[in-house]
Specification:
- It contains 22 helices and 12 strands.
- With about 450 residues, it is of the alpha/beta class.
- Among the domains are: about 250 residues, Rossmann fold (3-Layer(aba) Sandwich), CATH 3.40.50; about 50 residues, no CATH class.
- α3 crosses α12 and α16 packs parallel to α18.
- Bound molecules: iron/sulfur cluster (SF4).
- Iron/sulfur cluster binds next to α14.
- The site of iron/sulfur cluster (SF4) has 14 residues, from α14.
Length: about 450
């Protein structure tokens, strides 16, 4: 059951440990990013190149998708098109069932979280094991991820130690990172060797060659994409890049922006199937799920250029205090505030575009120069415009437009406002106004002046 951002954020803000964990983690990543970006005197040119590539993809997405499909099939892979999450889950379930397997390993994929693939497969009796360490932590804890790059950012070492002690039956485990990593490694290794089917997401897909690229820090993804017989990759249609040369630009932008590293520890690229090497069967599921609707919005479509680096989360004064769960979406933070409402459509996540101070820090760090504040304001306008005429904000704006439309009406409204507001004035401020509590709960109003400028002017 969704609470909406204001209520969910209120709960998160009440958790002091969560706020401490977030503060420590986001500040550490921010400092690393700043240092890594500072090493590149051409950083702004690189950003501009990234922006140009992603915008070109969005402008010609139809052609690039067909080019990608043909390249994958030429290389021995199979492409499936999915209009929505339900269709994508059905396709994946059918592919896994056809192998006769009842367990799969999965490498980090926000797209599969978006369509709730694990839940669908579990209902069909297929066990999915998350293999990214942070995703595994969330899976064992039965929690959603709370950060794009560091899904378990809301947990500290002690909390993870307690979780592993409980769930992996390791009562004497310490909170030393090396011991925690070793416990996860042993837990995963046996499943990697056993799994015959793997599911992956994709950071990028190259239209010209049909190549898929995933970047990760642990190497677990590489186990997933090389050991099993069948590999199924799910990607949103916006993940394409035109050529390998374009990929090169984005692979310079991504690690510096996300983990503050010069290059990513594990970058895996594969194209179709190769006899005697890696999976024998390769499927790609291309997911729309609202993306073509986003593409139709000339301002909002820039959200599809996101390369999921998470830099905007780490600098956001809202995210760094509330954490990701308050967004009630697999895409939290500033990018979630503009992507989720557009993917889900009107009325589903309308509070998210307001989860921002519009300070602009997200735009300054975005490696592909998505103007998040511009989209936030655009979406707020759309939400108000699409609301039914009787909704408070829309009704108030229509009434104000009518009042401001005539000098006489404005003068009368000011006199009326003075009279109506007078009983609520305390020490020169209106602190509570019935009917406008959503506004006055967090702000004071100034009373209407005892003499307006027009009255002062008329008096002389
Ligand atoms: S919007 Fe920009 S900064 Fe935020 S995750 Fe996407 S690419 Fe990174």
């Amino acid at each position: 059951m969704r609470k909406g951002f204001p209520a969910a954020a209120q709960d998160a803000l009440g958790d002091a440990q969560l706020r401490r964990n977030l503060l420590v983690a986001t500040h550490a990543i921010r400092a690393k990013r700043l240092a890594a970006v500072g090493e590149r005197p051409d950083w702004e040119e690189l950003r501009e190149a990234g922006r140009t590539i992603k915008r070109r993809v969005l402008r010609h997405l139809d052609a690039y998708l067909i080019q990608f499909e043909q390249a994958v099939e030429r290389a021995g892979g199979h492409v499936h098109w999915a209009r929505d999450g339900e269709e994508a889950c059905r396709v994946v379930q059918g592919l896994v069932t056809a192998t006769g397997q009842h367990e799969v390993v999965k490498v980090k994929s926000l797209t599969t979280d978006e369509i709730q693939l694990n839940e669908t497969l579990a209902a069909a009796g297929i066990d999915v094991l998350e293999t990214d360490l942070a995703e595994l932590i969330c899976q064992l804890a039965g929690e959603e991820s709370s950060h794009i790059l560091v899904p378990a950012i809301h947990k500290n070492r002690i909390e993870i130690r307690d979780l592993f002690r409980r769930e992996l039956a390791l009562p004497h485990l310490s909170e030393e990172p090396r011991e925690l990593a070793e416990a996860a490694r042993l837990h995963l290794r046996e499943r990697f060797l056993r799994a015959r089917v793997a599911i992956s997401g994709a950071n990028f897909a190259v239209a010209e060659t049909g190549t898929i690229c995933i970047v990760e820090s642990e190497g677990n993804g590489r186990f997933c994409t090389t050991l099993p017989d069948t590999l199924i990759t799910i990607l949103g249609i916006e993940k394409l890049v035109p050529t390998p040369e374009d990929l090169e630009v984005l692979l310079q932008l991504l690690p510096r922006s996300s983990t503050g590293e010069r290059m990513n520890p594990y970058t895996s690229l594969w194209t179709g199937v190769t006899p005697g090497d890696g999976p024998r069967e390769f499927h790609v599921v291309l997911l729309d799920a609202g993306r073509t609707d986003v593409l139709a919005d000339e301002v909002g479509r820039q959200a599809l250029a996101c390369i999921r680096c998470s830099a905007c989360l780490n600098v956001c004064p809202v995210y760094t205090r509330t954490g990701g769960h308050a967004y009630e979406s697999v895409y939290p933070g500033p990018i979630g505030a503009i992507l989720t409402p557009q993917l889900q459509g009107p009325g589903r996540a309308d509070s998210l575009p307001y989860a921002s101070s519009l300070c602009g820090a997200c735009y300054e760090v975005c490696p592909v120069k998505i103007d998040i504040p511009e989209v936030l304001v655009h979406l707020r306008g759309r939400i108000v415009a699409e609301a039914p005429p009787w909704r408070a904000e829309r009704a108030a704006m229509s009434a104000l437009a009518w009042v401001f439309g005539s000098e006489r009406r404005l003068g009368r409204a000011q006199r009326l406002g003075r009279l109506v507001g007078r009983p609520f004035v305390r020490r020169g401020r209106i602190r509570q106004l019935p009917g406008l509590r959503a506004w006055t709960d967090t702000r004071d109003l100034r009373p209407v002046a005892s003499q307006t400028f027009r009255e002062w002017w008329a008096s002389r």
